[in-house]
Amino acid sequence: MKNNSYGIIGLGKFGSVVAEELISAGNTVIVADKDEEALKNISNPASYAYILDSTNVTALKEAGFHDVEVVIVSIGDNVEKSILTLMALKDIGVNNIIAKATSNIHGQILSKLGATKVIYPEKESAKRLVKEFLVRESEFEVFDLSANTIRAIKINVDEKLAGNSLKHIAQNMRVIAYKKLNNDWEILPDFETTVVYSGDVIILLGTVKELRNFEY
């Protein structure tokens, strides 16, 4: 069960969306919640679904959470249960745990107890809303080239990005085309030495994972 296998504990709004996306992508997914109705609300059936106490080490192990690649702890406002669940997962040998936090203090505790990554869905959604729809400091478009795999980004350089090299802007993505203001497109430009200016256009190519980590 190690290949593309995930466990999700807590099927609120965030956990349900994560479960649906992973299941739709063809992954092996174990879901668990204390509420039977939460399990029924997932439109696509998970590989395995359990009603259990996520702080119970035996229950987690019997459900198979010790044998998945990543476990996402998406428990709502019950901070104590979230922390105890993380500790129980560590006890059964889960190494890769992504935990949802509802506050900075909650997140700091989860990190210190061994969470691989702590996420703040509400805070990150708010930032994304401002970045993508309210304050468009760096205008860009995203194009799907291969389902769930490869994407291209078209960036219109503004004053915020002007003066940077293509390498600095691209980060881990590939620069496949570059156009100076009022000039023709340049295919596969020298990204080490090329400096961009306001009004230029860049097209980057990368994986979905690289796009998620992309900071513009």
Helical percentage = 25-40%
Tally of helical segments: 8
The overall pLDDT average reads: 85
Class by SSE composition? alpha/beta
Task: Calculate Rg over CA atoms.
Answer: 21 Å
- Series of secondary-structure elements, N-terminal to C-terminal: EHEHEHEHEHEHEEHEEEH
Short description:
This protein is an alpha/beta fold.
Keywords:
single chain; 216 residues; alpha/beta; 6-stranded parallel β-sheet; 5-stranded antiparallel β-sheet; 8 helices; 26% strand; elongated
What do these coordinates show?
32% of the residues lie in helices and 26% in strands. It is of the alpha/beta class. The strands form two sheets. The chain has a six-stranded parallel sheet with strand order 3-2-1-4-5-6, with helices on both faces. A five-stranded antiparallel sheet has the order 7-8-11-9-10. It starts with a strand and ends with a helix. The model is unreliable at 133-138 (pLDDT under 50).
